[in-house]
Every structure is written in C-alpha cells, then in structure tokens.
Amino acid sequence: MKHYDVFGIGNALVDILVPVEDSLLQKMGWTKGIMTLVDSEVQGGVLVTLDGHKKELRSGGSAANTMIALANSGGTGTYTGKVSEDTYGEFYKQDMEKAGILFEVPPSKEGHTGTCVILTTPDAERTMLTHLGISTTLTKNDLDLDKLKKSSYSYVEGYLWDGPSTKEACVLAMEESKKAGVKVAFTFSDPFCVNRSREDFLRLTKDYCDLVFCNAEEAKALAASESKEEALKFVSKLCPNVMMTDGSNGAYVSENGTISHVSGFAVQKLLDTTGAGDSFAAGVLYGLTHGFNPERSAKWGNYVASRIVQEIGPRLSVRLMGRQEEILG
C-alpha cells in the first residue's frame, strides 16, 4: 500500500493574479496568451504599472497546480520545489500545506522565491510573466527518495528541463521511480519546452515514462507533424499511456496504442484558462490512483478542468472530494 498517490516535482512559483483590460496589455507591449521569462527588474516594472489593480496570491507552478487540484479531488501527495527564506517562500509553504499537499523542501538562504505575474483579460486568456528566481536551483539532493518510493506515481513537469541541476533532479526521480515500481508521469508543459528540448523529450518519453500528458500543440511539436491525430499516434508509440487534451473538444486517451476520445463538459462562463491542463492532469492522476480506468480518469480530468476555467486563477473554490460518483455516474 502506497502512502502517497503522487510525488510531484516542479518549479515553485508564487502566482500574482491580476485582471487587466486588453488596452493595458497592449500598452505594456506583451503578447497575449503566452508565457514569457523575465528578470526581476522587468517584473518589478510591470508590478509598478499595475499599482492600484486588484492582486491575489496563490502558490503555483504547473506541477504544484496539479498537486493542489489532486488534493481537492481527495488525493494525497507531496511536492518538491525550491523557495527562498523570504516572505513569498513562507507564503508558498503555508499555502501548499493549507491546500493539503506536503511541502518540506528546506528553503534556500539566498536568492528570491520565483514569481509569476498572470495577467487575465476579459476573454479569459492569460499572459504570464515569469521570474523563476530560486526555483531553478532545485537539485537532486532536494528529492526525498523515501517519500518518492512510498508514492504510486511520480509527476514531473517539462518546465524543469531548463537547467543542469533541475535536469539531474528529473532524471534521478525517474530512475528511482523505475527501480521502486513507482509509475512515471511526465507533462510536456508547453510547445516551447518541446521545441527547445525535443530530442531529450523523445528520449525521456521512450525510456522512462508510463504516462504522458500533453495538449495537441505539444504533441504536434514532438511529432514534427501538423496533424493532431498523427501526432498522438507518434507519441503513443513511445509511451504506453498518453493523455492528450484538445481544448473544448475534451481529451484523447491512448492505452497501449488503442486511442479513444473522451468528451468534455459544458462551461457556463469561461473566465480564465490558467491551470486547465494542470487540473486535467490532477483529475486523471486521481482517477488512476483510485481504481478508475483510463477513460473514466480522463472524464474526471475533463470535469476538473471544466471547473477551473470558470474561476479566476488556478485554484478551485469548490471542493470536489467525494463527488466523483455523483458527477460521473
């Protein structure tokens, strides 16, 4: 019996959520709908411009969002990410544990906790300005391998494939998972991650992964194909289980090469797409660790994602724990 459903690893970032009008986004000169890495000075200038706007803080980072939504569904997990001994770092730990996820990585005495300013326009698109801060200094020594071995799945975000020490941590987590019989789940995170490290992602997917999460654009980037169907077939030949999201069209599930489509849920009012893919992964991981088959797991993932896009920010205001039978039937 495993003690944790999921052992998550990713960048630890404090999200600073700010609703803005399109006109302000254009005036500031940022391209809508994408994530841009910025330094602390640029991000500080953006926050000065946003002085007077309503802001909310959340513990974030892609894999962290997944872990929090997993706990909301009733799952258990522990998260590995790097923060600093500063105000944002203290907030991060408290917020993660308040959400139900264990976070015990010792903070760094140097540097600043990473932050992500998320600008959400009225059409629900989010534009992210990310300063990774101390999160990029995560090393393999930060991994609690005892907790990893007590987990059903390890879950690694593709955003970590950016620096030498974080790459080493990813590979060690995957290798130790395989040795301990822990299933490896990997999310491609973003098309730019795939394009920048395509050969590495191909190798990781083939050599280590039991389950891959991607959206259609990420799959097409890995497969170097313009067809989402062909891209899914390509990824499916590398990994036995693939979950590919396709926006409002729901998701595609590939299990040992057999592909099926799982429809999505109607959304009454689309407010913010932040964390939709992360929430889908949370629902799937909850399902797979609680006896659901892949299609039912994807259905629950679709439902969790459908709820998150009706919220501002990547955090659900409703509790989904224990509601799976009621909602899925």
TrEMBL record:
<protein>
    <submittedName>
        <fullName>Adenosine kinase</fullName>
    </submittedName>
</protein>
<dbReference type="InterPro" id="IPR011611">
    <property type="entry name" value="PfkB_dom"/>
</dbReference>
<dbReference type="Pfam" id="PF00294">
    <property type="entry name" value="PfkB"/>
</dbReference>
<feature type="domain" description="Carbohydrate kinase PfkB">
    <location>
        <begin position="52"/>
        <end position="317"/>
    </location>
</feature>
<keyword id="KW-0418">Kinase</keyword>
<keyword id="KW-0808">Transferase</keyword>
<comment type="similarity">
    <text>Belongs to the carbohydrate kinase PfkB family.</text>
</comment>
<dbReference type="InterPro" id="IPR002173">
    <property type="entry name" value="Carboh/pur_kinase_PfkB_CS"/>
</dbReference>
<dbReference type="InterPro" id="IPR052700">
    <property type="entry name" value="Carb_kinase_PfkB-like"/>
</dbReference>
<dbReference type="InterPro" id="IPR029056">
    <property type="entry name" value="Ribokinase-like"/>
</dbReference>
<dbReference type="GO" id="GO:0016301">
    <property type="term" value="F:kinase activity"/>
</dbReference>
